[in-house]
Amino acid sequence: MDINPFAMINVQEVTTPKQLKQFIRLPYRLYANDPHWIPPLLADEKKYWTRHPGLRKNTVKMFLAYKNGKPAGRIGFMVNKRYNELNDTRYARFFALEATDDAAVFDALLGRAEDEARRAGMTRIHGPLGYNNLDHQGLLVEGFDRPQILVSVYNKPYYKDHLERLGYQKEHDWVETRITVTDEPVEKGRRGAALIKRRFGIEAWQPVNRQEMVEQTEAIFEIYNRAFRHLHYMVPLDEDDVAYYKKAYINALLPKWTFFGRDTKHDNRLVGLLLTIPSLGDAFRKARGRLFPLGWYHLLKALRRPKEIDIAIIAVMPEYFAKGVAAVIFDRFHQVMLENGIRVFETGPVFEDNHNVLSNWKNYEHEQHKRKRVYGKDLR
Fold first, then answer.
1. How far is CA 279 from each of CA 33, 140, 292, 315, 357, rounded to the nearest angstrom?
2. CA 165, CA 197: separation in Å to the nearest integer?
3. What is the pLDDT of residue 297?
């Protein structure tokens, strides 16, 4: 137990069911009146903090900061063993940072995480970073006036100020882009897709039902691991991770909004994918973290009649980067959007130096409107 007698901040490790409940529910109180934040489903949050395979494979601790006896902040601490092995580093990670706008609370939480990192023999701490790149990662540093989308993050502007005050500096940024689909890129994409199919045998494919999509789970995660292996902070998914994310994500995808590129010259091998979801932010806000009694109604309505679409993942096998796979997939994506009267999509987070993906937006009417960041600090 660490106590700051001047600020009356008491930091405790989460070890009891009551503390875990407080840890999970703290953001719901901090953002209760914020129209931009998306409250995740409480049931999903509990699964994440009790069943995620990363809890077993890494050194993970959770801490709560109490001010005058009430929860005022939280932080997760992790030594991601696989990441350190792959990169020959001794880095710790912090994640799930949430707190009131109180310097003493931020000082206590990040100070505790830094102390844990030193005790573990780490030389640097960075974050917010989860178990792998499918988790919510990064801290919002631009775009506070825009609503969060389900595949990204949201936090108050003061988080950035406190981290920088404590000596944390930028490592890498993601950017998010809002795109309007006009006729010109649609027609250009259609001509390009036809040319690519003739030249390379690449065509778009969609599963006809959920079962057919679930059958592609192994291929989906193979593409993910190979396509993302060069990205910052990448930790490849193993069998336990795939089993967890299959239940958490793959089973929730809609075939109608799931797109693949396949190589017809090589046994219809799947070589790229675009996983998208109808924008569900407003529905989740109305659900307030619960499916019952009416949360399911708001979500079902949003799924049936979406107004916008969010991109969760776009990935292409490295050996197919130069073969136009993304163009073929986006041509089909355009068709389905227009068939449903939708003209706007958001890209989700893309690393600012991932030019292979960012180049896809140059022909659209687009606005880069959000930015999130990983901060790092050397330990002494």
1. 21, 19, 20, 20, 21
2. 53
3. 66
How far is it, in rounded angstroms, from Cα 185 to Cα 361? 10
Residues 90-117 have a mean pLDDT of 98
Task: Answer whether 274's CB lies under 8 Å from 360's CB.
Answer: no
For residues 92 and 113, the answer to whether their CB atoms sit within 8 Å is yes
On whether the CB atoms of residues 231 and 354 are closer than 8 A, the answer is yes
- What would you report as the CA-atom Rg of the chain, rounded to the nearest whole angstrom? 21
- Look at residues 243, 249, 250, 270 and name the one whose alpha carbon lies nearest to residue 210: 250
In the chain, where does DSSP find H-type helix? 17-30, 42-51, 54-57, 81-87, 103-119, 158-165, 183-200, 210-214, 217-227, 239-248, 281-287, 295-304, 325-339, 355-358
Helix segments in 100-144, DSSP class H: 103-119
Pairing of strands 139-142, 124-127: unpaired
Q: Give helix 17-30 / helix 42-51 axis angle, nearest 10°.
A: 140
pTM across the whole model: 0.93
**286 neighbors 38 (Cβ within 8 angstroms):** no
Domain annotation for the chain: domains and CATH numbers: 2-175 (3.40.630.30), 183-342 (3.40.630.30)
User: Where residue 3 falls among pLDDT bands split at 50, 70, 90?
Assistant: very low
Cα torsion for 367, 370, 374, 376, to the nearest 10°? 100
